[in-house]
Amino acid sequence: PNTSEKLSDYGANRTKAYQLTMDWIKATIPMSGDLWMLLVDADFEYVQKSWDPKLLASPEYRKSTMLYVYQGKSERDQYMNYRLLNLRHEFKCVGIVHECWEVKGSADTKVFPHLWIRDHDDGANKANKNARDAKACKIWAKQDPTNPRPWFYLGQSRYYQALEGGRSEAEQAEIIEEGIKALKCRVKLGSFYLEVWQSLIWLGDFYKMKKDEAKMIAAWSHAKLLVADRAEASCRLGIFYCEKGGIYHPNAVIELEYARSRKLPADGFFVDVPSYTYKPEVWLAISKFYTGKKSEGAILNDKVLLMHEVGHQEKNMAFHNAQF
Question: pLDDT confidence of 32, banded at 50, 70, 90?
């Protein structure tokens, strides 16, 4: 739908589009049976897998409020996001800078694995997105300091800004410190445990950038204790211990075996898919070799070489390891 109305923020923009679309649907299509709304951006490429629209009417999905769909630049670099809304319910998009859908009443969510969306620009199709988002979130946090949302999104924006690089050491240090401060505020405010968990993961990453190993380990360990069925924290700890080498390889084996035993979560929040698919095997093969279990390491390494989703760097590591 076209509208010339000036909108105040990201959430208002999407809510208006949702409302206009719903008006069109109500005027055009009988509101009966199973109707779903697929949320896509202009830079998305809609990829079909074993897709059949009738699946949405099946008992497995029809009672769900929202469905997650995998998206990303590639299947090695993907995450899950809400992309299907069940129109039996009413929705509203909230948030100044990020897409967050609220539903009237309780929410029942599931992963819908039958679609995959290629996100060519991965949400960053405008120049200085992270810096602009951080600026907006700082204003938001000042206006509403007890609201967890602006602190989380400020920490997230500073995190991805820090990953961009290309700035002076002083500027980078300032971005990292502001990100740490924001995420610590988010953790302190509590509520929505998965967001607290993700804040701890990013805090550990920030401390790794600062080379503060003690605080890095503490943050990731806290995350592991908070959500024991997730692999991301253990995978990070295992890779860290493997890279340190020597006496740390047994620690790496413990953490990577733990990560390897975790199942890909169905809730979809903040999932680092490689932590469940190939990262544990790549690094575990190395630490197995150095802890006297060469045959187990060799089997794992051969498995990695056959995985199509493994990244170029990890594949090269596996080729190198196969020589020993």
Answer: low
